[in-house]
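Researcher: Re-running this chain for the archive, since the previous output was lost when a drive failed. Same request as before.
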Amino acid sequence: MVFTMSAEYGADQIQILEGLEAVRKRPGMYIGSTSSRGLHHLVYEIVDNSVDEALAGFCTQIQVFINADNSITVIDNGRGIPVGINHKAGLPAVEVVFTVLHAGGKFGGGGYKVSGGLHGVGASVVNALSDWLEVEIAHEGKIYKQRYERGKVCYALREERECGDDKIGTKVTFKPDATIFEETIFEYDILKTRLRETAFLTKGLKIILSDLRPGLEQEKTFHYEGGIKEFVQYLNKSKEALYPDVMYFEGKKNNVLVEVAMQHNDSYNESVYSFVNNINTPEGGTHLVGFRNAITKTFNDYARGAKLLKDSEPNLTGDDIREGLAAIISVKIEDPQFEGQTKQKLGNSEARGAVDNVVSEQLTYFLEQNPSVAKIICEKSILAQRAREAARKARDLTRRKTALEGSTLPGKLADCSDKDPKNCEIYIVEGDSAGGSAKTARSRATQAILPLRGKILNVEKARLDKIYANAEIRAMITAFGTGIHEDFDISKLRYDKIIIMTDADVDGAHIATLMLTFIYRFMPELIKQGHVYLAKPPLYKLERNKQVWYAYSDDELDKILAEVGRDQNNKIQRYKGLGEMDAEQLWDTTMDPEKRILLRVNMNDDDESEIDITFNTLMGDKVEPRRIFIEENAKFVKNLDIS
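Model: Regenerated structure tokens:
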């Protein structure tokens, strides 16, 4: 899908909106944060400029290198940033792009019909936040170069050398400023995830990611002629598709280009992701609303017409129809209006009508042409509808009563006395034995204990009615107070920290993973807002001459032994489970806020499709993807205890 270009793309099409002064003082305003996420965003900004060339039909390949010194190089074979003089600024256009905030071909100057990037400020912000940046442009048989240090020009744009007339494109190399970022080490896997996604969304574009750092050398090429159809196949790789072909619809309405790919699988979770000009919109927006309206109405109309739904039965809801649906909604629009500074939700009203129109029309045709596929989807949706009604009845039993009606907290919960959620935390503890020790050890004012018996239900393989029927899950839902799924309300959260505390062995890791799967699928905001933690109990206790040391890893034990000496007076105990510790030891090692180690569970919207795939790979029905995952990640395992 390619946009037509306006005729002019020269130096004067680069427009200047404002200066660059504030970027180094307040970097978070421009890239979100100075953490790892902000660091990697610098790469996306430069890559997005190259992708804009691809969307316009002038770039077929982008190369991204993580260099040995942890700088980044991005090379494309687009037209090259203009090198002529921008008459408004009196400077070469390329210098304007890299030194003036809000300067580029994206502001109505005729450079691009559509574009991504962070409000079009990308190149100058990356320059401002880099220790140094160099740009090389191949243009009309010559290579032009300019270098900047912390956003300042080192020398005027100069002609470096001649090259072949057929060589065109832009090469940008930059090294992030270590005085601004909390860390400056790029992670290959983070870039790989984003660049794979970008390649899926830009049909036919080849993106090559190379890590040149000693000992970390690797390379991956992303090239998808099928575009978002292949994206859906990728999302479904750990699942069983219910029908062989991915549905694909495209069209243009109201000057909005629409692409939709979708396919149902045998899971019970929805994996639907929306994009605008290749920008992920994790909070959805008008394009997602249009998609949901279209499939809900179209499937209900078909089910009624085909007598799959009886006249006495209620309509299928959107949730019923989207059970087990993997879908990508991608729109291209000239002037996208986003709600909020972070571009997480599309606001253009025309996008809703465009997506609704394209999907309704083409999905209706598809269902009529493929009645066997239509029947499979409708039958799955009807089963989901029945399960949803059963879940509603079960949910009514789990809802915590208001203060006027009295408390219905689970009986095995040892609650804390402080009623201010900001001061409170709850330990989800594996087993009654450890639960008993934890109840004795805890600070009763602020620490609640909820012991769980055995392994909870694997929600990856269960519908909502089965989930509500599970006693252990009901206990967690009631204790947390937020409700789940469409009833979720984070303002009702009863504890600031939810701490999963399991044994440091394979079974403990499995139980923790089951709990995280449940929270991720039905209460993801708890993770996104930083309320979920894993407790880290010690692996070893070293006792010598009535002195005690605790070690949380093999390396830490070796360090302690190196300090105290290795001899026969050392008594070393390897903890197999929390139940081996008495209350005092459990408090000292794992529950005392002054001494304990907590691992916060993090996720961000950029990684959501990969997280979805990982959970389904680990917890779903397919064995082969899980085997491959284990083989690829076994080298990262530490402290494995299978005894």
